[in-house]
């Protein structure tokens, strides 16, 4: 999976098409990501005094298929495909195809 936690992504399909957000969680096995402010659902929760959770209707993000999101290049702000490049010091980093910007920190 070429999308990692902390990446800025744009939704390219579905009801939230065009919205951007940061990846909060990436699930490699199920090929799903949780994006901040995207795919909001209402969850009815029961109060739990041990965990200090108040009951009621909580709105939170649901997982979205990774094929429905695209990484945003940090330099140009455009959506891009992701490639890989080996640097001179031997590190393998992810690279934005649209402008060659390095995505890994």
Would you write up a description of this structure?
With 105 residues, the protein is mainly beta. Helix content is 0%, strand content 44%. It is elongated.
> Would you identify the regions where 5 or more consecutive residues have pLDDT less than 50?
none
Task: Determine Rg (CA atoms, Å).
Answer: 17 Å
| Contiguous helical run count | 0
The ordered string of helix (H) and strand (E) elements is: EEEEEEEEEE
Biggest sheet record: 6 strands, antiparallel
> What is the average per-residue confidence, as pLDDT, rounded to a whole number?
95
From the helix content, strand content and strand pairing, which structural class follows? mainly beta
Total number of strands: 10
Strand content: 35-45%
Q: Looking across the biggest beta sheet, what order are the strands in?
A: 6-3-2-1-7-8
Helicity level, as a percent range? under 10%
Approximate shape = elongated
| CA distance, first residue to last residue | 17 Å
Brief summary:
The chain has strands at 8-11, 20-27, 32-35, 40-45, 56-61, 64-65, 69-72, 79-80, 82-86, 92-96.
Write the layout of secondary structure elements.
Layout lengths: L7 E4 L8 E8 L4 E4 L4 E6 L10 E6 L2 E2 L3 E4 L6 E2 L1 E5 L5 E5 L9
Antiparallel strand pairs: 1-2, 1-7, 2-3, 3-6, 4-5, 7-8, 9-10
